[in-house]
Amino acid sequence: MAMPEVTLRGLLEAGVHFGHHTRRWNPKMAPYIFGVRNQVHILDLQQTVPLMDRALRTVRDVVAGGGRVLFVGTKKAAADYVAEAATRCGQYYVNHRWLGGMLTNWKTITGSIKRLKQMDEQLAGNTQGLTKKEILMLTREREKLDRALGGIREMGGLPDLIFVIDTIKEKLAIEEANKLGIPVIAVCDSNADPSGVAFPIPGNDDAIRAINLYCDMMAAAVFDGISAELSASGMDVGAQADLPTDVMPDDSGLPGAGAVPETLGGAEVADVPVLEGAVQSSPTSGVDRESLEQMVQNNRDDGNNAG
């Protein structure tokens, strides 16, 4: 999959340029504001386009190098889109609630993930010996852990890059990433604080269409990075597709011993490459039937002796 193309028209159609009311703004976002319309700040999309493209290329490079990307968006408008996009491209997400120490106290989080997997195995297996109340309590605990940690249960370590929607709500996640030196890509609205964000993307972080656009572009960049990683490892991406297996018929299905069909798959025999040493003319050219049958029998005897 190719890198997604960031266009001014696409951002306009998604409503990325709409900021917040003028009384709800952060002066640190002043360089990214184009103007005011109906007491609403309008973000400068001519800056958003190159900044978005830079962020997408960063995601691609990280994934191409074998890195992990963590999608973070716990607000109601973004939760479903974040989970769907991250799952679709094989990355990880947090969309319910950011637990304090989710990155800085990874050892404790690892223990909770291990507990979640144990409960999954227990509920999926034999629950004999447990009362209905015990099973209910175990199910509730499992659902609570899955909401908080289900998106990172297979991450296996700290992420190499974090993509955040709404820097105000995810302030704790950005602070933990900064403490660990993990780069942050974040959508910054007119009321956001871009401090601590390595790759800011000026844009609306409340509109559903805008959020969906961000997630789709990030997922496409991840796919492109995965393709680049497979190409660098020497693996043919096209060879991964399931191809039909050709089955050679046995001798009983042939028109005669040693006979060659006139066409192969609709193509003339003359158009098919012939192995070295093979007779390119008619199979019986210059050979009588008795000699031909003897040659076929000798070939079969040689094959049986070799087996």
Q: Let me know the average pLDDT.
A: 82
Uncertain segments: 241-249, 251-287, 303-307
- Main sheet properties: 5 strands, parallel
Shape: globular
Structural class: alpha/beta
Question: Into which percent range does the helicity of residues fall?
Answer: 40-55%
Q: H/E order of the elements?
A: HEEEHEHEHHEHEEHEEH
| Computed CA radius of gyration, to the nearest angstrom | 31 Å
> Count of helices?
8
Distance between the termini: 47 Å
Q: What proportion of the residues form beta strands (DSSP E)?
A: 5-15%
Number of strands: 10
* Lateral strand order in the biggest sheet: 5-4-6-7-8
Short synopsis of the structure:
With 307 residues, this protein is an alpha/beta fold.
